[in-house]
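User: Sorry, folds how?
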Amino acid sequence: MNGSHFSEFKPSSSVIIISDIVAICTTFLICEILLKKIDTGNLLNDSWHHSYIYLMIFLPILLLTLLSVGLYNGRLRVTSSGINSRVVVATSLAYLLVKSIYHVSLINELPSHFAEYNLIAVSASIMLLRFIISKTPYQNLGVKRILILGAGRRASLIEQYMRRKSDRIGIDIVGFVEMECDADGSIQNEKKIILNQPLETYVIDNNINEVVIACDERREVLPNQSLFSCRRSGVKIIDIIDFFERETGQVAVNHVYPSWIIYGSNNTYHSPIHHSLYWAFNAVFALCIFVLTWPFMLMTVVAIKFEEGWRAPVLYSQSRTGLDGKIFKIYKFRSMRTDAEKDGVKWAQLSDPRVTRVGAFIRKYRIDELPQLFNVINGDMDFVGPRPERPEFTKVFEHEIPYYNHRFNVKPGLTGWAQLKYPYGSNENDAVEKLKYDLYYIKNRGFLFDILILLRTAEIVIFGKGR
């Protein structure tokens, strides 16, 4: 994965992670000291020495569960009660996972009820920490001051797609420098700057950390010598496309050049060895998920039959476009009426009247997609990748949306970066928006990135988001 383009962990997120680690370890020590004072008759009990083993196992698992419920997402917008409920889910899940590890391993037992007391204390400390963070300007730590060189069409990407405060966590956009040959009137509501001094002087005087090249025309317009001086002074110079990609996790498909596709994509995942290893990982993971979810699948079958009769079909298959444009059959639990497409192929819509009552529930929690575990084992799909689209739509998109066929360079997935960042699509405009995230994933894909997406998908499943 290309770390320079990885946008999820902002400076503020790093501060939160470090604060959580300190809070968890401090709470553990306080809990241990207090319990030892109470348990004065067993101070020499060996089980106390093994409590630190518990901490070493519990800490990384808890950080992963906190990540999986979205608590390290710098753009998470929920109420205080929503934060607290996510903390409870994360700590409880971590507790159950660690207790399961203790149960199946040969690790010595902990002092009586220590894990339970520690769970309550850690949950309370993380909730308190989140409350303190919400009342302090923690996000100002590590903020980079950004100067945009340009105020035309390319620069307007920032105004269009980074309007909210949550879109600018970790950065402070000082202003947009008007340049010759920029399109008139593109920047409407941002601060414009007319330089009356050399660029490098303005950059130094205003403590600029990064200059973004966003002018519409560069030939004989860019102050190359000044930019060189800025770079020598430690100021980072970055192109608007790379800046936009880094900060939003998407690619500006209408502004990139063909060279971006040729030189920018990740080409390390096309060897036969990689395909075999990746299939093995996905197949084993699919079997593990099946073992955990087969009761829910069985209940879904019963629920569909109960609602629509015992002769009603349970599974639904569709043709989808996969790797290299090949057509395959995708399987889902049927969530719509059997006559849903009697008038032809249609986009699924929010609050679609064709969806059954059981279908609405299983779509909300992604249960309808569990049969696609077979597609993963069969090698048609991976767990992570662009969602496969119907051939009837892809034929249109290939002609009308730039770089759309680049999605076919990787296997489609059960979940993906676009599903996390832009969870619903019901028309061609939505397809364009999702493509921006799909191209970002294709360029930056890697094992750790896939793991992050899988963890973040747990947030969608647990809290029913994205439907």
Remarks:
- The chain has 16 helices and nine strands.
- Residues 261 and 381 are 23 Å apart (CA to CA).
- The chain has a mean pLDDT of 84.
